[in-house]
Every structure is written in C-alpha cells, then in structure tokens.
Input
Amino acid sequence: MLSSCGTGGALSDARTSCRSVHAALVLEKKSEQPGLSTDAQSSLQAAAMSELLRATPSAAAATSLDGSWNPLMTTINEAERVPLSYLAPALTRLCQVADSSTPYL
Output
C-alpha cells in the first residue's frame, strides 16, 4: 500500500496537520519571550493551543489511512495534558519527517 510507504493521502493529511503544528509552535515560542506580560503570555499560549487543536482532524485522518502516523496524532493529543513546550521537540521531529522528501516513521 502506498500510504504505508509515506505517500498518498496519509502523507498529505500529515503535512496538513503539520502546518497547524508549525503555527502553534511559533506562537508557543513567542509566548516564551522575555518581557511579556502574563496576559500576553497566556493569550499567545491559548492561541498556540487553538492552532494545535486545528491539527487534530488531519492527524487523525492520516492515522486512519496509515497507522504509522499515530505518533503525530498521539503527541498532538497529549497537549491537553502536557505543556506544549515539552512536546515541541517531538512535534518538530515528527513534522520534519512528514515534510521531508523521505517521510518514513
């Protein structure tokens, strides 16, 4: 099956998910800048979480087509329990794989 080789609809869905993941990580990084008020930090972190939640449907679709994308979906879902800053390295790596020319998990 092509999708299990990292191509096809699953890869497209994973890449769609990663666009939201990337946007969320940018917002999260901005929230960590020194000198921000607590309100500004909270607002940026809330925006990051909203953006990350937008990544969920396409990550789920990728997983449905190809179970090897389950780590992406699972890591996104963990953001409800674990601070996004702790998940950033894993999400970054998973999306590097999705965005690469050889997207194999």
In short: The CA atoms of residues 32 and 41 lie 7 Å apart. Confidence is low (pLDDT under 50) at residues 1-6. The radius of gyration is 14 Å.
